[in-house]
């Protein structure tokens, strides 16, 4: 992994974070907002763990093969602040990918808004500083 490729991945991730933020700002009177936020959460989550993987490889810290390993190593390296929230994301990501239930969708929407989005935004800022 070179700095140019890492920077490119960081920009892709930052764009996904902005798109998730846009979806979270939408009016909840439209039930489709829940679906849109969940879809953007899934996409942002995938980009996040792959960006973490790339960053860890670039820094020579670790060669990770899974989101769980990436989040644990990122927490140890100080790249993410709350490892438990990132590990919780794994379960919610798996839940959204394999089943659909309106009540679950609303619960996950709330978690994305209150817990996961701030973590995504913090990661975007830390990576942006690192690839300057």
TrEMBL record:
The keyword NADP does not apply. It comes from the Bacteria. It holds the Pfam family NTase_sub_bind. GO terms for molecular function: transferase activity. Residues 3-30 form a coiled coil. InterPro entries: HepT. This is Nucleotidyltransferase substrate binding protein, HI0074 family. It comes from Thermosinus carboxydivorans Nor1.
